[in-house]
Automatic annotation (TrEMBL):
Signal peptide: none annotated. Gene3D superfamilies: 3.30.70.20, P-loop containing nucleotide triphosphate hydrolases. One of its GO terms (molecular function) is oxidoreductase activity. It comes from the Archaea. Transmembrane segments: none annotated. It comes from Methanofollis fontis. This is ATPase. The lineage of its organism: Archaea, Methanobacteriati, Methanobacteriota, Stenosarchaea group, Methanomicrobia. Residues 59-88, 89-117 form the 4Fe-4S ferredoxin-type domain.
Length: 281
């Protein structure tokens, strides 16, 4: 079963929920934790261990100046503005290139080939028995993290129990991460902004046809508006994590409440069971 953990915005505690859930599952069975928040992966901070790195590349065009007639067809074709053709040379702005390969197809002279460039890496760790952590890391300055997300998803494709931490928000990286998962845990805070962002994330997950439920983090005990929203959208509230000094202290030092505070391993085990019952697993 593949469970995605997402949120409409950063800072809601999404990664904390993913890490606690994975730690709890690892007490019972083999589990893979995947960090698809490739711009800012942080799950390795909960689970420090040596990493084996694998580069992630994508293809970009290379121009043969001997064959090129500077006709401009490739530049006209490229909708991302990645190619500029001048009188005596062709320039590529690789950070704008989406690696579609189209310029190579339209070049009448066969002057374009492709070459791989590294845009990031995956890091694999085994921080404890039963837990495999795969993190996607995008190179600084890269605009498109989707190939890194694909590489992480490829690495976890055969694993049985997988928890995937998504990027925050509701844009393409979230869609790439959540699609084809069995369930999505939406982490939110019980504030008006939290409900707004939850709605955006819930819309994306619903459009993908992935069943979902909600974890309310930093609950003050008065979550009536969030609960009303969840009822309206037919989203089950799977868990509440209260806003207490004790929990905040554990989280602020990078700890795991499931491991460090009494009763929370059972609470996260219940969360996993709730997800299983929602998907009929
Ligand atoms: S389409 Fe081919 S020949 Fe024309 S400018 Fe581009 S690389 Fe040169
Ligand atoms: S591969 Fe596609 S996106 Fe990249 S430069 Fe060529 S046409 Fe543009």
């Amino acid at each position: 079963m593949k469970i995605a953990v997402a949120s409409g915005k950063g800072g809601t505690g999404k990664s904390t929920v993913a890490a606690n859930l994975a730690w709890t599952c690892a007490q019972r069975r083999a589990v893979t934790l995947a960090d698809c928040d490739v711009e800012e992966p942080n799950l390795h901070l909960f689970f420090p261990a040596p990493a084996a790195e694998t580069p992630v590349t994508r293809m970009v065009p290379v121009f043969d100046e001997e064959l090129c007639t500077h006709c401009g067809d490739c530049s006209h074709f490229c909708r991302y503005g990645a190619i500029v053709v001048m009188k005596d040379r062709v320039m590529l702005f690789p950070e704008l290139c989406h690696s579609c390969g189209g310029c190579m197809l339209v070049c009448p002279e066969g002057a374009i080939t492709e070459t791989p460039v590294q845009i990031g890496r995956t890091e694999e760790r085994t921080p404890m028995e039963n837990l495999r952590l795969i993190s996607g890391v995008m190179n600084e300055g890269e605009a498109n993290g989707i190939p890194v997300i694909h590489a992480v998803k490829e690495a976890i494709s055969g694993d049985e129990t997988v928890i995937i931490d998504s990027s925050p928000g509701s844009a393409c990286p979230v869609i790439e991460t959540v699609k084809e998962t069995d369930f999505c845990v939406l982490v939110t805070e019980a504030t008006p902004f939290g409900i707004h962002d939850l709605e955006l994330a819930a819309d994306v997950v619903e459009a993908l046809g992935v069943p979902s439920g909600v974890v309310i983090n930093r609950s003050s005990g008065d979550d009536a508006e969030t609960e009303a929203f969840c009822r309206e959208r037919n989203l089950r509230v799977l868990m509440k994590i209260p806003f207490t000094r004790e929990i905040a202290a554990v989280q602020n030092r990078g700890g795991l409440i499931a491991r460090d505070l009494e009763g929370w391993e059972e609470a996260f085990a219940d969360l996993y069971e709730s997800v299983c019952s929602e998907v009929g697993a």
